[in-house]
Amino acid sequence: MSEAARGLAGRARPFGLWERMLAIRYLRARRSQGGVGLISVISFIGITLAVATLIIVMSVMNGFRSELLSRILGFQGHVYVTGGVLDGPARDLAAARILKVPGVIQAAPIIEAQAIAVGPSQITGALVRGIRPSDLRGTTLVSGNITKGDLKGFGVGDYGGDVVVVGERLAQTLGVAPGDTVSLISPSGGATAFGGTPLQKAYTVGATFSVGMSQYDQAYIYMPLSQAQLFFGREDTADAIEVRVADPDNAAKMKAAINTAAGPAALVTDWAQRDSSYWGALQVERVVMRLILMLLVAIAAMNIISGLVMLVKNKGRDIAILRTIGAGQGSILRIFFMAGASVGVLGTLAGLTIGSLFCVYIGPIQGAVEWVTGQAVFSSDVYYLSRVPAKVDWAEVGVIVSWALGMSFLATLPPALRASKIDPVEALRYE
Protein backbone atom coordinates (compact mmCIF):
# COMPACT_ATOMS: atom_id res chain seq x y z
CA MET A 1 0.00 0.00 0.00
CA SER A 2 1.33 3.47 -0.88
CA GLU A 3 2.15 6.13 1.69
CA ALA A 4 -1.04 7.99 0.84
CA ALA A 5 -3.08 4.85 1.33
CA ARG A 6 -1.28 4.20 4.60
CA GLY A 7 -2.12 7.67 5.79
CA LEU A 8 -5.74 7.20 4.73
CA ALA A 9 -5.91 3.95 6.70
CA GLY A 10 -4.53 5.68 9.75
CA ARG A 11 -7.07 8.51 9.50
CA ALA A 12 -10.08 6.37 8.51
CA ARG A 13 -12.99 6.60 10.86
CA PRO A 14 -14.19 3.46 12.70
CA PHE A 15 -16.36 1.12 10.61
CA GLY A 16 -15.38 3.09 7.52
CA LEU A 17 -15.60 2.00 3.90
CA TRP A 18 -12.29 0.16 3.69
CA GLU A 19 -13.02 -1.82 6.87
CA ARG A 20 -16.44 -2.84 5.58
CA MET A 21 -15.02 -3.81 2.18
CA LEU A 22 -12.41 -6.05 3.79
CA ALA A 23 -14.99 -7.66 6.10
CA ILE A 24 -17.24 -8.48 3.13
CA ARG A 25 -14.30 -9.74 1.09
CA TYR A 26 -13.16 -12.11 3.86
CA LEU A 27 -16.67 -13.38 4.43
CA ARG A 28 -17.22 -14.10 0.72
CA ALA A 29 -13.79 -15.60 0.10
CA ARG A 30 -13.71 -19.10 -1.37
CA ARG A 31 -12.25 -21.98 0.58
CA SER A 32 -9.20 -22.04 -1.65
CA GLN A 33 -8.61 -18.41 -0.62
CA GLY A 34 -8.85 -19.15 3.07
CA GLY A 35 -12.57 -18.41 3.35
CA VAL A 36 -15.09 -20.19 5.53
CA GLY A 37 -18.16 -19.97 3.34
CA LEU A 38 -19.71 -23.32 4.34
CA ILE A 39 -19.43 -22.63 8.06
CA SER A 40 -20.89 -19.16 7.51
CA VAL A 41 -23.84 -20.65 5.62
CA ILE A 42 -24.41 -23.19 8.40
CA SER A 43 -24.29 -20.42 11.03
CA PHE A 44 -26.68 -18.30 8.97
CA ILE A 45 -29.17 -21.16 8.59
CA GLY A 46 -28.94 -22.05 12.29
CA ILE A 47 -29.64 -18.50 13.47
CA THR A 48 -32.43 -18.08 10.91
CA LEU A 49 -34.22 -21.24 12.00
CA ALA A 50 -33.71 -20.54 15.71
CA VAL A 51 -35.09 -16.98 15.50
CA ALA A 52 -37.99 -18.03 13.25
CA THR A 53 -38.86 -20.92 15.58
CA LEU A 54 -38.76 -18.70 18.64
CA ILE A 55 -41.04 -16.12 17.02
CA ILE A 56 -43.48 -18.77 15.77
CA VAL A 57 -43.67 -20.71 19.04
CA MET A 58 -44.11 -17.61 21.21
CA SER A 59 -46.70 -16.16 18.80
CA VAL A 60 -48.68 -19.41 18.85
CA MET A 61 -48.53 -19.52 22.65
CA ASN A 62 -49.64 -15.86 22.80
CA GLY A 63 -52.45 -16.62 20.37
CA PHE A 64 -53.44 -19.72 22.31
CA ARG A 65 -53.63 -17.74 25.56
CA SER A 66 -55.49 -14.87 23.88
CA GLU A 67 -58.03 -17.21 22.26
CA LEU A 68 -58.58 -19.13 25.47
CA LEU A 69 -58.87 -15.93 27.45
CA SER A 70 -61.34 -14.34 25.05
CA ARG A 71 -63.50 -17.45 24.79
CA ILE A 72 -63.40 -18.44 28.45
CA LEU A 73 -64.02 -14.91 29.63
CA GLY A 74 -66.58 -14.38 26.89
CA PHE A 75 -68.48 -17.41 28.16
CA GLN A 76 -67.76 -17.11 31.87
CA GLY A 77 -67.77 -13.96 33.96
CA HIS A 78 -64.84 -11.78 34.95
CA VAL A 79 -65.87 -11.13 38.56
CA TYR A 80 -68.17 -13.25 40.73
CA VAL A 81 -70.25 -11.94 43.64
CA THR A 82 -71.50 -14.48 46.17
CA GLY A 83 -72.65 -14.38 49.79
CA GLY A 84 -75.71 -12.97 51.50
CA VAL A 85 -76.75 -10.65 48.66
CA LEU A 86 -78.09 -13.50 46.48
CA ASP A 87 -81.44 -14.02 48.21
CA GLY A 88 -84.69 -12.35 47.20
CA PRO A 89 -84.98 -8.70 46.12
CA ALA A 90 -81.51 -7.89 47.50
CA ARG A 91 -79.98 -9.78 44.59
CA ASP A 92 -81.54 -7.63 41.87
CA LEU A 93 -80.78 -4.44 43.81
CA ALA A 94 -77.13 -5.49 44.19
CA ALA A 95 -76.90 -6.32 40.48
CA ALA A 96 -78.33 -2.90 39.61
CA ARG A 97 -75.78 -1.15 41.85
CA ILE A 98 -72.91 -3.19 40.45
CA LEU A 99 -73.96 -2.28 36.91
CA LYS A 100 -73.42 1.40 37.77
CA VAL A 101 -69.75 0.84 38.63
CA PRO A 102 -67.55 2.42 35.92
CA GLY A 103 -66.18 -0.27 33.63
CA VAL A 104 -68.89 -2.86 34.39
CA ILE A 105 -70.89 -3.88 31.31
CA GLN A 106 -73.02 -6.71 32.72
CA ALA A 107 -74.15 -8.03 36.11
CA ALA A 108 -76.13 -11.26 35.68
CA PRO A 109 -77.52 -13.45 38.47
CA ILE A 110 -76.96 -17.09 37.49
CA ILE A 111 -77.65 -20.61 38.63
CA GLU A 112 -75.31 -23.36 37.51
CA ALA A 113 -76.07 -26.98 38.32
CA GLN A 114 -75.51 -30.46 36.95
CA ALA A 115 -78.28 -32.45 35.30
CA ILE A 116 -78.79 -35.56 33.21
CA ALA A 117 -79.90 -34.87 29.65
CA VAL A 118 -81.97 -37.52 27.86
CA GLY A 119 -82.32 -37.39 24.09
CA PRO A 120 -83.60 -39.80 21.43
CA SER A 121 -80.15 -41.32 20.89
CA GLN A 122 -78.14 -40.74 24.05
CA ILE A 123 -78.16 -40.02 27.77
CA THR A 124 -75.38 -37.80 29.05
CA GLY A 125 -74.47 -35.38 31.78
CA ALA A 126 -74.87 -31.64 31.23
CA LEU A 127 -74.28 -28.35 32.99
CA VAL A 128 -77.42 -26.24 33.12
CA ARG A 129 -76.98 -22.51 33.48
CA GLY A 130 -79.96 -20.48 34.57
CA ILE A 131 -79.80 -16.90 33.32
CA ARG A 132 -82.17 -14.03 32.61
CA PRO A 133 -83.16 -13.78 28.92
CA SER A 134 -81.77 -10.24 28.65
CA ASP A 135 -78.45 -11.37 30.07
CA LEU A 136 -78.23 -14.28 27.63
CA ARG A 137 -78.76 -11.91 24.73
CA GLY A 138 -76.08 -9.68 26.23
CA THR A 139 -73.60 -12.58 26.29
CA THR A 140 -72.50 -12.01 22.71
CA LEU A 141 -70.21 -15.03 22.54
CA VAL A 142 -73.33 -17.20 22.86
CA SER A 143 -76.08 -15.07 21.33
CA GLY A 144 -73.80 -14.13 18.42
CA ASN A 145 -72.93 -17.75 17.64
CA ILE A 146 -76.35 -19.37 17.31
CA THR A 147 -75.96 -22.13 14.73
CA LYS A 148 -79.57 -23.28 14.47
CA GLY A 149 -82.88 -21.84 15.68
CA ASP A 150 -83.19 -18.50 17.52
CA LEU A 151 -83.74 -16.97 20.96
CA LYS A 152 -87.26 -15.67 20.34
CA GLY A 153 -88.97 -18.20 22.61
CA PHE A 154 -86.33 -18.13 25.35
CA GLY A 155 -87.86 -16.79 28.57
CA VAL A 156 -91.45 -16.66 27.25
CA GLY A 157 -94.11 -18.30 29.45
CA ASP A 158 -94.75 -19.05 33.10
CA TYR A 159 -91.56 -19.25 35.17
CA GLY A 160 -89.57 -18.39 32.07
CA GLY A 161 -91.17 -21.03 29.86
CA ASP A 162 -89.84 -24.40 28.71
CA VAL A 163 -87.44 -23.35 25.92
CA VAL A 164 -83.72 -24.06 26.41
CA VAL A 165 -80.59 -23.33 24.37
CA VAL A 166 -78.20 -26.28 23.91
CA GLY A 167 -74.54 -26.46 22.90
CA GLU A 168 -74.16 -27.73 19.36
CA ARG A 169 -71.94 -30.72 20.20
CA LEU A 170 -74.24 -31.68 23.07
CA ALA A 171 -77.25 -31.47 20.75
CA GLN A 172 -75.50 -33.72 18.24
CA THR A 173 -74.69 -36.21 20.98
CA LEU A 174 -78.31 -36.25 22.16
CA GLY A 175 -79.66 -36.34 18.61
CA VAL A 176 -81.82 -33.23 18.97
CA ALA A 177 -82.33 -30.07 16.94
CA PRO A 178 -84.38 -26.87 17.42
CA GLY A 179 -88.02 -27.85 17.89
CA ASP A 180 -87.20 -31.26 19.40
CA THR A 181 -87.71 -32.24 23.01
CA VAL A 182 -84.97 -33.00 25.49
CA SER A 183 -85.65 -34.34 28.99
CA LEU A 184 -83.59 -33.08 31.93
CA ILE A 185 -83.26 -34.87 35.24
CA SER A 186 -82.33 -32.81 38.27
CA PRO A 187 -80.68 -34.81 41.08
CA SER A 188 -82.38 -32.69 43.77
CA GLY A 189 -85.13 -30.70 42.16
CA GLY A 190 -88.15 -31.91 44.09
CA ALA A 191 -88.47 -31.08 47.79
CA THR A 192 -90.37 -33.53 50.01
CA ALA A 193 -90.67 -34.23 53.72
CA PHE A 194 -87.82 -36.75 53.28
CA GLY A 195 -85.50 -34.33 51.44
CA GLY A 196 -84.74 -33.67 47.81
CA THR A 197 -85.78 -36.14 45.12
CA PRO A 198 -84.84 -36.30 41.43
CA LEU A 199 -87.09 -34.30 39.15
CA GLN A 200 -87.54 -34.96 35.42
CA LYS A 201 -89.01 -32.50 32.97
CA ALA A 202 -89.20 -32.19 29.19
CA TYR A 203 -87.97 -29.01 27.50
CA THR A 204 -88.08 -27.74 23.93
CA VAL A 205 -84.80 -26.96 22.21
CA GLY A 206 -85.09 -23.40 20.93
CA ALA A 207 -81.59 -22.99 19.50
CA THR A 208 -78.09 -24.44 19.46
CA PHE A 209 -74.86 -22.46 19.87
CA SER A 210 -71.18 -23.02 19.14
CA VAL A 211 -68.51 -20.86 20.77
CA GLY A 212 -65.59 -22.82 19.30
CA MET A 213 -64.54 -24.57 22.51
CA SER A 214 -65.61 -28.17 22.87
CA GLN A 215 -65.72 -28.03 26.68
CA TYR A 216 -68.61 -25.57 26.40
CA ASP A 217 -70.29 -26.72 23.20
CA GLN A 218 -70.62 -30.30 24.44
CA ALA A 219 -71.64 -29.59 28.04
CA TYR A 220 -73.81 -26.50 28.50
CA ILE A 221 -77.56 -25.91 28.37
CA TYR A 222 -79.01 -22.43 28.96
CA MET A 223 -82.30 -22.18 30.83
CA PRO A 224 -84.27 -19.10 31.97
CA LEU A 225 -83.33 -18.13 35.53
CA SER A 226 -86.89 -18.44 36.91
CA GLN A 227 -87.25 -21.91 35.40
CA ALA A 228 -83.85 -22.99 36.79
CA GLN A 229 -84.89 -21.83 40.27
CA LEU A 230 -88.01 -23.94 39.99
CA PHE A 231 -86.33 -26.98 38.41
CA PHE A 232 -83.43 -27.15 40.86
CA GLY A 233 -85.47 -26.16 43.91
CA ARG A 234 -83.56 -22.93 44.54
CA GLU A 235 -86.69 -20.88 45.31
CA ASP A 236 -85.78 -17.17 45.04
CA THR A 237 -82.01 -17.37 45.13
CA ALA A 238 -79.02 -17.68 42.79
CA ASP A 239 -75.56 -19.17 42.90
CA ALA A 240 -73.70 -15.96 42.02
CA ILE A 241 -73.87 -12.62 40.28
CA GLU A 242 -71.66 -12.93 37.23
CA VAL A 243 -70.05 -9.59 36.40
CA ARG A 244 -68.41 -8.69 33.08
CA VAL A 245 -66.12 -5.71 32.77
CA ALA A 246 -64.81 -3.82 29.75
CA ASP A 247 -61.19 -4.93 30.33
CA PRO A 248 -60.80 -8.37 31.95
CA ASP A 249 -57.17 -7.60 32.84
CA ASN A 250 -58.46 -4.89 35.21
CA ALA A 251 -60.90 -7.23 36.95
CA ALA A 252 -58.71 -7.59 40.04
CA LYS A 253 -58.43 -3.80 40.39
CA MET A 254 -62.21 -3.41 40.18
CA LYS A 255 -63.03 -5.91 42.91
CA ALA A 256 -63.01 -3.28 45.67
CA ALA A 257 -65.48 -1.00 43.84
CA ILE A 258 -67.74 -3.95 42.98
CA ASN A 259 -67.62 -5.17 46.59
CA THR A 260 -68.63 -1.72 47.84
CA ALA A 261 -71.53 -1.61 45.37
CA ALA A 262 -72.69 -5.14 46.23
CA GLY A 263 -72.73 -4.51 49.99
CA PRO A 264 -70.92 -5.73 53.11
CA ALA A 265 -72.48 -9.22 52.90
CA ALA A 266 -70.93 -9.90 49.48
CA LEU A 267 -67.89 -12.02 48.68
CA VAL A 268 -66.07 -11.00 45.50
CA THR A 269 -63.60 -13.07 43.46
CA ASP A 270 -62.17 -12.55 39.97
CA TRP A 271 -61.54 -14.94 37.10
CA ALA A 272 -57.83 -15.31 37.88
CA GLN A 273 -58.62 -16.51 41.40
CA ARG A 274 -61.19 -19.04 40.26
CA ASP A 275 -58.79 -20.64 37.74
CA SER A 276 -55.49 -19.67 39.34
CA SER A 277 -53.83 -23.07 38.85
CA TYR A 278 -54.76 -23.20 35.16
CA TRP A 279 -53.60 -19.69 34.27
CA GLY A 280 -50.53 -20.04 36.49
CA ALA A 281 -49.49 -23.24 34.71
CA LEU A 282 -50.03 -21.57 31.32
CA GLN A 283 -47.80 -18.64 32.33
CA VAL A 284 -45.04 -20.90 33.67
CA GLU A 285 -45.11 -22.97 30.49
CA ARG A 286 -44.79 -19.81 28.41
CA VAL A 287 -41.80 -18.52 30.39
CA VAL A 288 -39.99 -21.88 30.35
CA MET A 289 -40.54 -22.31 26.62
CA ARG A 290 -39.14 -18.85 25.96
CA LEU A 291 -36.00 -19.60 27.98
CA ILE A 292 -35.43 -22.93 26.23
CA LEU A 293 -35.78 -21.43 22.76
CA MET A 294 -33.55 -18.49 23.65
CA LEU A 295 -30.87 -21.02 24.56
CA LEU A 296 -31.28 -22.54 21.10
CA VAL A 297 -30.68 -19.10 19.58
CA ALA A 298 -27.55 -18.77 21.71
CA ILE A 299 -26.30 -22.21 20.59
CA ALA A 300 -26.91 -21.30 16.94
CA ALA A 301 -24.98 -18.05 17.41
CA MET A 302 -22.02 -19.96 18.86
CA ASN A 303 -21.41 -21.46 15.41
CA ILE A 304 -20.09 -18.04 14.42
CA ILE A 305 -17.11 -18.56 16.73
CA SER A 306 -15.84 -21.64 14.91
CA GLY A 307 -16.13 -20.00 11.53
CA LEU A 308 -14.44 -16.81 12.65
CA VAL A 309 -11.61 -18.66 14.43
CA MET A 310 -10.83 -20.48 11.17
CA LEU A 311 -11.03 -17.22 9.26
CA VAL A 312 -8.58 -15.53 11.63
CA LYS A 313 -6.18 -18.49 11.34
CA ASN A 314 -6.35 -18.48 7.54
CA LYS A 315 -5.93 -14.72 7.31
CA GLY A 316 -2.97 -14.44 9.70
CA ARG A 317 -0.66 -13.27 6.90
CA ASP A 318 -3.17 -10.66 5.74
CA ILE A 319 -3.57 -9.38 9.29
CA ALA A 320 0.21 -9.04 9.67
CA ILE A 321 0.48 -7.10 6.40
CA LEU A 322 -2.35 -4.78 7.40
CA ARG A 323 -0.66 -4.12 10.71
CA THR A 324 2.69 -3.37 9.09
CA ILE A 325 1.17 -0.81 6.69
CA GLY A 326 -0.49 1.11 9.48
CA ALA A 327 -3.79 -0.57 10.41
CA GLY A 328 -4.32 -0.43 14.17
CA GLN A 329 -5.59 -3.12 16.49
CA GLY A 330 -8.99 -1.40 16.52
CA SER A 331 -9.30 -1.64 12.74
CA ILE A 332 -8.47 -5.37 12.75
CA LEU A 333 -10.95 -5.91 15.57
CA ARG A 334 -13.71 -4.08 13.68
CA ILE A 335 -12.99 -5.89 10.39
CA PHE A 336 -13.39 -9.36 11.88
CA PHE A 337 -16.22 -8.23 14.15
CA MET A 338 -18.19 -7.06 11.10
CA ALA A 339 -17.35 -10.27 9.24
CA GLY A 340 -18.83 -12.42 12.01
CA ALA A 341 -21.63 -10.10 13.11
CA SER A 342 -22.96 -9.76 9.57
CA VAL A 343 -23.82 -13.48 9.63
CA GLY A 344 -25.82 -12.97 12.83
CA VAL A 345 -27.53 -9.83 11.52
CA LEU A 346 -28.53 -11.42 8.22
CA GLY A 347 -29.65 -14.63 9.94
CA THR A 348 -31.73 -12.66 12.46
CA LEU A 349 -33.39 -10.59 9.73
CA ALA A 350 -34.15 -13.72 7.71
CA GLY A 351 -35.56 -15.45 10.80
CA LEU A 352 -37.68 -12.39 11.60
CA THR A 353 -39.09 -12.37 8.08
CA ILE A 354 -39.82 -16.10 7.95
CA GLY A 355 -41.30 -16.21 11.45
CA SER A 356 -43.54 -13.19 10.90
CA LEU A 357 -44.81 -14.43 7.54
CA PHE A 358 -45.48 -17.88 8.98
CA CYS A 359 -47.59 -16.36 11.77
CA VAL A 360 -49.50 -14.10 9.38
CA TYR A 361 -50.34 -16.97 7.02
CA ILE A 362 -50.66 -19.72 9.61
CA GLY A 363 -54.29 -20.38 8.62
CA PRO A 364 -53.55 -21.20 4.96
CA ILE A 365 -50.46 -23.16 6.05
CA GLN A 366 -52.58 -25.26 8.41
CA GLY A 367 -55.13 -25.84 5.64
CA ALA A 368 -52.41 -26.92 3.20
CA VAL A 369 -50.89 -29.35 5.70
CA GLU A 370 -54.29 -30.86 6.49
CA TRP A 371 -55.06 -31.17 2.77
CA VAL A 372 -51.74 -32.94 2.09
CA THR A 373 -51.90 -35.27 5.11
CA GLY A 374 -55.67 -35.73 5.17
CA GLN A 375 -55.69 -35.32 8.96
CA ALA A 376 -56.50 -32.49 11.35
CA VAL A 377 -53.27 -31.12 12.83
CA PHE A 378 -55.09 -29.19 15.55
CA SER A 379 -58.03 -31.18 16.87
CA SER A 380 -60.62 -29.12 18.75
CA ASP A 381 -61.35 -32.15 20.95
CA VAL A 382 -57.83 -31.96 22.34
CA TYR A 383 -57.01 -28.24 22.25
CA TYR A 384 -60.53 -26.80 22.59
CA LEU A 385 -59.93 -24.65 19.50
CA SER A 386 -60.65 -25.43 15.87
CA ARG A 387 -57.56 -23.71 14.39
CA VAL A 388 -53.98 -22.91 15.30
CA PRO A 389 -53.98 -19.44 16.86
CA ALA A 390 -51.10 -17.02 16.39
CA LYS A 391 -50.76 -13.52 17.82
CA VAL A 392 -47.54 -11.65 17.07
CA ASP A 393 -46.48 -9.52 20.03
CA TRP A 394 -44.11 -7.04 18.39
CA ALA A 395 -42.62 -6.02 21.74
CA GLU A 396 -41.69 -9.65 22.34
CA VAL A 397 -40.38 -9.93 18.78
CA GLY A 398 -38.16 -6.93 19.54
CA VAL A 399 -36.77 -8.75 22.58
CA ILE A 400 -36.12 -11.87 20.46
CA VAL A 401 -34.31 -9.88 17.75
CA SER A 402 -32.26 -8.01 20.36
CA TRP A 403 -31.31 -11.30 22.04
CA ALA A 404 -30.27 -12.88 18.73
CA LEU A 405 -28.19 -9.84 17.73
CA GLY A 406 -26.64 -9.62 21.19
CA MET A 407 -25.61 -13.28 21.17
CA SER A 408 -24.23 -12.93 17.63
CA PHE A 409 -22.14 -9.90 18.61
CA LEU A 410 -20.97 -11.61 21.80
CA ALA A 411 -19.93 -14.73 19.87
CA THR A 412 -17.98 -12.59 17.42
CA LEU A 413 -15.91 -10.72 19.99
CA PRO A 414 -13.42 -13.44 21.19
CA PRO A 415 -12.00 -14.37 17.75
CA ALA A 416 -12.04 -10.72 16.65
CA LEU A 417 -10.06 -9.77 19.77
CA ARG A 418 -7.64 -12.61 19.05
CA ALA A 419 -7.14 -11.32 15.52
CA SER A 420 -6.42 -7.79 16.75
CA LYS A 421 -3.68 -9.07 19.08
CA ILE A 422 -1.75 -11.03 16.45
CA ASP A 423 1.90 -9.96 16.38
CA PRO A 424 2.81 -9.17 12.76
CA VAL A 425 6.44 -10.22 13.34
CA GLU A 426 5.42 -13.66 14.55
CA ALA A 427 2.81 -14.03 11.79
CA LEU A 428 5.35 -13.27 9.04
CA ARG A 429 8.30 -15.11 10.59
CA TYR A 430 7.82 -18.24 8.46
CA GLU A 431 6.29 -16.62 5.38
Specify the structural class: alpha+beta
**Which assembly state applies to the chains in this document?**
single chain
Strand fraction: 15-25%
Mean pLDDT metric: 81
Our count of helices gives: 18
Order of helices and strands: HHHEHEEHHEEHEEHEHEHEHHHHHHHH
Through-space gap between termini: 19 Å
Assign a percent range to the helix content: 55-70%
Given as residue ranges, the uncertain stretches (5+ residues, pLDDT < 50) are 1-10
Globular, elongated, flat, extended or rod-shaped: what is the shape? elongated
Task: Please give the domain count.
Answer: 2
- State Rg: 33 Å
Number of strands: 10
Spatially, the strands of the biggest sheet line up as 2-3-8-5-7-6
Q: Profile the largest sheet.
A: 6 strands, mixed, barrel
Describe the SSE topology.
Elements: H1 3-11, H2 17-28, H3 37-75, E1 79-83, H4 89-99, E2 104-118, E3 123-131, H5 133-138, H6 140-143, E4 146-149, E5 163-167, H7 168-174, E6 181-192, E7 195-209, H8 214-217, E8 220-224, H9 225-231, E9 240-245, H10 251-262, E10 266-270, H11 271-274, H12 276-314, H13 316-324, H14 329-360, H15 362-373, H16 380-383, H17 394-420, H18 424-428
Parallel strand pairs: 3-8, 5-7
Antiparallel strand pairs: 1-9, 1-10, 2-3, 2-6, 2-9, 4-7, 5-8, 6-7
Helix pairs in contact: 2-14, 3-12, 3-14, 3-17, 4-10, 12-14, 12-17, 14-17
